[in-house]
Amino acid sequence: MSPACLAAGPSLDFGVSIPPTARMEIRDPAVFLDYLASTHQRTRRLLPLIPPDDIEWAPKAGWFSLGGIVRHLAGIERFMYAETVCGRPSAYPGHGRDLADGLDGVIAYYDRLHAESRALFAALTPEQFAGRTTTPGGATITTWKWLRAMFEHEAHHRGQLYLMLALRGVETPPIYGLTAEEVEARSRRA
Ligand code: NI
Predict the structure, then answer these.
(1) Count of CB atoms within 10 A of residue 88's CB?
(2) What's the CA-to-centroid distance between 7 and ligand 1, angstroms?
(3) Fewer CB atoms < 10 Å away: N or C end of the chain?
(4) Which is nearest to 2 in space by CA: 13, 14, 17?
């Protein structure tokens, strides 16, 4: 981000300036749901690319498998985030194969839990978004800030999926339409 962009808004407590419109966005339930749809789609489109025989492949022993990450993302969204923002304790069931097995089963689990999560998020009122949620660690946090962290969590694991698919020889789509090489080719030389 350029210095001019950084100067566009007042500094927040984490030391980064964000334009006022961006700061408002995630507090708005409708905008949150739009953003959830687009970020979710960027993860969902990777799942059919997983070779069925590699669904439980992991880069090293004890690490998440491909299927484990997918079950983890679905379970965290549905049973940690959606449960806690509704005022209930986290009910995260883990990410084991007992929850969903095989590529088709894992994708079905992911889709079912996301649909349930989205319905729960869609039922939240603006007042609930501005209210407080108790985390599994026992802290309380403003609900929209808690949900904002969900996007970073998903992006973290989506990056793992990208790398793990590459390690299995699978071609993956650029995250935003252009590859890094295409962006470089279209960039001004310093
Ligand atoms: Ni995680």
Answers:
(1) 11
(2) 33
(3) C
(4) 17
Q: What is the pLDDT of residues 77-103, one digit of tens each?
A: 999 999 999 999 999 999 999 999 999
Cα–chain center distance at 159: 10
Q: What does the alpha-carbon distance between residue 156 and residue 48 come to, in Å, rounded to a whole number?
A: 19
pLDDT tens digits, residue range 129-186? 999 999 999 999 999 999 999 999 999 999 999 999 999 999 999 888 888 888 889 9
Both structure tokens of 105:
């089963």
Distance from residue 153's CA to the centre of ligand 1 (Å): 6
CA 73 to ligand 1 centroid distance, Å: 7
pLDDT category at 13 given cuts 50, 70, 90 is very low
Fold of 28-185: Four Helix Bundle (Hemerythrin (Met), subunit A) (1.20.120)
Q: How far apart are CA 5 and CA 177, in angstroms?
A: 23
Q: pTM of this prediction?
A: 0.85
Determine the distance separating the centroid of ligand 1 and the alpha carbon of 40, expressed in angstroms.
15
- Torsions phi, psi of 134, nearest 5? -90, 125
